Amino acid sequence: xxxxxxxxxxxQDILAGKIKLPNLPDTSMKLxxxxxxxxxxxxxxxxxxxxxxxxxxxIMQAANxxxxxGSRPSSDLNSAIIRLGTTxxxxxVLTHSMETTFVKRxxxxxxxxxxxxxxxxxxxxxxxAIASRIADYGVRVDPDMALLAGSxxxxxxxxxxxxxxxxxxxMPSAEEIEEMPSQISSNIGVVLAKHWxxxxxxxxxxxxxxxxxxxxxxxxxxxxxxxFATLIHRxxxxxxxxxxxxxxTVPVKKAALHGILxxxxxxxxxxxxxxxxxxxxxxxxxxxxxxxxxxxxxxATRYGVATEQETKTSSKVTPIxxxxxxxx
Length: 328
Fold this sequence. Notes:
Layout (H helix, E strand, L loop, with lengths): L4 H11 L10 H10 L6 H9 L2 H11 L13 H8 L1 H17 L7 H25 L8 H8 L4 H12 L7 H5 L3 H14 L4 H8 L14 H16 L12 H8 L7 H19 L6 H13 L5 H6 L5 H9 L1
């Protein structure tokens, strides 16, 4: 039987410096170090990336996928980085690094940890898809930063489970994980994100991950996107009855307040969900299956809008016209 009090004990020990926090793998650390140099060139990124063939494979797959910009294939890593941009590459590397740190090194409790990681990636890809979609309404939230923030939703819980496993302590069941106090897992995640030198915007998302009650001031921002994605996951995917209907939640009300949704929430969620599935398939190494790509196209056709790829390749379709057709 797992003792829930150990969660708080681990958190206290982390704050007291008694528990060594995990570092990100070398590839991620070297990449961040290179990007910190304002005079870096793309070719400077190649050595640390080439040292990890698995990451290279994911980057190439992403660059040549429908989820990103894949019309003409990238034949080498250099052109793939140029196509994706360094922010996208960094997000891909960081999410892969977190998976390596917490999932691929876990054995006895791999199923429980894998499930949490899949939820992370679901929230991350939903966040990225929402950020991409609201750009049509003139709202600028970096989709790559949204992917990174969302993929860290459960990072505090993953850190806790990793510690328990490494010290051969009793592991909680999936049901017991659901019942863990959210704030302690969030606090552990904040400490770890700061240790990894994540951007303050990302840290803020982890800090307020389940605090949906208060309307944040100012424009629709990364935290709003992150919470919107979290609510879609909890209400639509997990049928969380402790939360109100999606249309009555604060992030959705704020989106409507800023003219992002109008009366088309169901349309918006369907399109975002299809794109998130495509992105998730790409980042999982499947390249975006034909059926997933078809889901994006069929959702776009159903609601009379252009897909992102059509918007990029057709001079007749602009983000503004697509948004008008979408809200019609």
